[in-house]
């Protein structure tokens, strides 16, 4: 289908939901260039401009699909999803629910807290307020879904004669959670992740261990009291800074992205040693190789801000993120599309709406409960 055919389908009312979303995104673009909303006549007059926008740099007779299969065009697709699935917009919903498609809802604030004595607390089912007290530390769940540790007495703050208690907070697939540690450090956990930490930090180091993905805003305390995050393959050391670590076992590389301050990343295996990051840089640990690359910090923490964000990502990378957030299993039949995806889409829409968008770009799915099969 070329751009003109797409516009004709739109004008005749025969577009699919995803096709309609793309065309109306272009209409919106031109509408925003004027002070007032476009009239029906002005929308008609804008058709040629929209066609030109969709067909820009196209050779005669070249189809629309090969061009928009590229990363830049997928940005158009995902930006369409961003606009039309934005919950704060007052525009009508454009992608209708399919009655025959099971609605798989997005994830939310879900986590389990395991105390030092083995007691498990399901945080999404727990009442707000104080959950427990151990070793002079009060654990509270706030009304906005955060886990907060506060020191009840000075003896706990200094360690005193008290035994240090270790806690673990773990999110399932389809879950995320924020925890505020006793030193004031804030940690956001992405889906299928866990953080193990002491209820009070003593000595000259503050050590925690991570699986999965988390964003850290480390509290600035005494310069001699460093903060370190260990995963299965690396250690990140900081004093006071903001950074994101993606260390999922099913991803090829471990990525540490620095937003503020400075960090030292040390590989636990191989001969790469350590690297120091400046804001805007990303450490990539792939196998035994540890390298520093320019980083896209907005992309790195998009999940924390309620977004999927991809840059030149293959389909499997996209679907791994989808599987973690919607708690589904993904399998593949036949050859995978070789295209790459770039752009953003909200994480608060139903899975069927995400798949609708991808389906327009020749990615096909078979849905059986919570099992998604990508087909030819």
Automatic annotation (TrEMBL):
The keyword Ligase does not apply. InterPro entries: FecR (IPR006860), FecR_C (IPR032508), Ferrdict_sens_TM (IPR012373). GO terms for molecular function: sigma factor antagonist activity. The chain crosses the membrane at residues 64-85. Residues 168-264 form the FecR protein domain. It comes from the Bacteria. Residues 308-374 form the Protein FecR C-terminal domain. Keywords: Membrane, Transmembrane, Transmembrane helix. This is Ferric-dicitrate binding protein FerR (Iron transport regulator). It comes from Pedobacter cryoconitis.
């Amino acid at each position: 289908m070329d751009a003109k055919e797409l516009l004709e389908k739109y004008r005749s009312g025969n577009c699919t939901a995803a096709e309609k979303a793309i065309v109306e995104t272009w209409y919106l673009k031109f509408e925003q260039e004027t002070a007032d909303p476009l009239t029906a006549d002005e929308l008609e007059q804008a058709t040629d401009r929209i066609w030109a926008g969709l067909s820009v740099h196209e050779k005669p007779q070249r189809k629309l699909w090969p061009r928009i299969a590229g990363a830049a065009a997928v940005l158009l697709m995902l930006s369409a999803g961003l606009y039309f699935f934005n919950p704060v917009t007052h525009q009508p919903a454009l992608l209708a629910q399919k009655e025959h498609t099971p609605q798989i809802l997005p994830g939310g604030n879900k986590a389990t807290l395991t105390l030092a004595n083995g007691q498990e607390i399901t945080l999404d089912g727990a009442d707000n307020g104080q959950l427990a007290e151990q070793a002079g530390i009060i654990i509270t769940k706030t009304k906005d879904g955060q886990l907060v540790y506060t020191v009840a007495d000075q003896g706990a703050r200094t360690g005193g004669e008290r035994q240090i208690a270790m806690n673990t907070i773990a999110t399932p697939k389809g879950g995320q959670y924020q925890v505020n540690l006793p030193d004031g450090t804030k940690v956001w956990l992405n889906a299928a992740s866990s953080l193990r930490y002491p209820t009070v930090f003593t000595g000259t180091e503050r050590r925690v261990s991570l699986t999965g993905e988390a964003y850290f805003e480390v509290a600035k305390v005494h310069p001699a009291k460093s903060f370190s995050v260990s995963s299965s393959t690396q250690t990140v050391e900081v004093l006071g800074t903001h950074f994101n670590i993606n260390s999922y076992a099913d991803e090829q590389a471990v990525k540490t992205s620095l937003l503020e301050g400075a960090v030292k990343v040390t590989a636990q295996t191989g001969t790469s040693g350590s690297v120091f990051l400046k804001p805007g840089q990303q450490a990539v640990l792939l196998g035994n190789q540890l390298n520093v690359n320019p980083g896209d910090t907005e992309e790195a923490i998009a999940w924390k801000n309620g977004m999927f964000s991809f840059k030149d990502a293959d389909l499997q990378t996209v679907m791994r993120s989808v599987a973690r957030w919607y708690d589904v299993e993904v399998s593949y039949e036949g050859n995978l599309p070789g295209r790459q995806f770039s752009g953003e889409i909200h994480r608060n829409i139903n899975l069927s709406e995400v798949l609708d968008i991808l389906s327009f770009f020749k990615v096909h799915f078979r849905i059986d409960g919570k099992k998604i099969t990508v087909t030819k």
